[in-house]
Amino acid sequence: MPLNGRSAPPPPQANAYSVAHIFPVHKWKALKQKGLKAPKLSETQGLSLFYHADEYLTKSVKLLQKCADPNSERWRIYSERVHRAQRLLLDSVQLIYQDMDDSVKSNRDYRRQLPPEDQRELEGGFSENILFAAQALSKGFRIRGIERFTSDLAEPARLLCATFETLRFVFRRRAMISAAPPHEDLTPIVKEFDTAWTAFERKICFCYFEIQYTGAPGKDDGTDMFQVLLSETILYALKQGYFALDQVESADPEVIIGLPRLALVAALTHMPECINITDSKSGFRWFRTKAHKLADAQAEISRWSQERLRRFERMLAQCDDLDTPAKSLQGEEKKGSATVLDDGATYIGSGPLSFETFYMCTGDTHTRGSSVSTTMSALSVVTALSGTTVASPTSISAPLLPSPTDSIPSTSKSDREMQRYYRLICSIADDLQSGPRAREFATVLGAVFSIHRC
Length: 454
Description:
Elements: H1 16-20, H2 29-33, H3 46-65, H4 73-97, H5 116-122, H6 128-138, H7 150-177, H8 187-209, H9 223-240, H10 245-249, H11 253-268, H12 291-301, H13 306-317, H14 324-330, E1 333-335, E2 338-340, E3 346-347, H15 355-361, H16 372-384, H17 413-434, H18 438-452
Antiparallel strand pairs: 1-2, 2-3
Helix pairs in contact: 3-4, 3-7, 6-7, 7-8, 7-9, 9-11, 9-18, 11-17, 16-17, 16-18, 17-18
């Protein structure tokens, strides 16, 4: 979206459905299942304002998505309401951000090189125009006038959108626990969001005005996007019920082991635009030597039904035994919204203030893994997270999973295929924990958990 309110409509072929779905909608089931309650609206508490602004945004987006004609007056009214709601949400983020220590805030000196009117547009907070531009780019739209920069902007746009959605989750959770300051516990996610914001804002300003800062926009090596993939996978796993919120908050070793496995499947299936892991030349460097195997897995898994894919993801997330596919496929019973397996395990697949007035005015931890080295590496990641205490690896008595080379009971051809890809994904993902990338991966994983532990 251009600065200073200048119009930048999506491509002519865009329809009402695609434009409306630029804006994400969340049900936040993980927070509701936690039994947390909405905070009362308070002018003096930034997190309270954020929560109710976020609720207002969700309602506004739902109304827009029900409108079929983008040329109607109704569409115009609902569209303006969504943009107003996003501005209010960003204003509430600014209220919390402005009280943070300066060491948390990213440098914005590049703004001095912008035209005066655009400097004014960006001063004093987070511009909704910038956010909307990132949202549109992340959904595959191009921005008129700077189409040739689309490929350069796409990656930082996705990074900004992903960190913004994580910030929404973390801020909502904190508001539902306590909306009262201080907000030092929110520092990791605020810093992550601000870094992503300024990176995208700076690049899009360069694209509009072709200003030389320290060089033209360029792409990093993909590590940031893999971190985004891990963060997005956590939110996905919470939504699907693969992980419990308290497991994520405590950096449960089961999550540490299961998360990279799920992330690889996510990169192959429902989030392939986030990062490329199937190209041996241009893909993410961590997986280039395994790219051909991952491409083969992608081709096979893409043919699976949603039910079969969810079952496979559940196995990876919960580190199930390698003969679980046979159990799951042959002995599964449905009971309500839960899935009960043979072994009994259950998976749960300014006046009187109202928000309208406000916006008008302004379990036990078990350590399991595919190998001892993987488990110890996972524990080292947990230990590295500040404020987290875990037992020594030698005191862990929970049984480990069989290694991928252990024998497996004879099953059907379909089950053997699932077992084959289970082994493949586990082998590649677990190598991040104990192989040559272990130290680098631990840093990335630690950053992800520091955000979700806010």
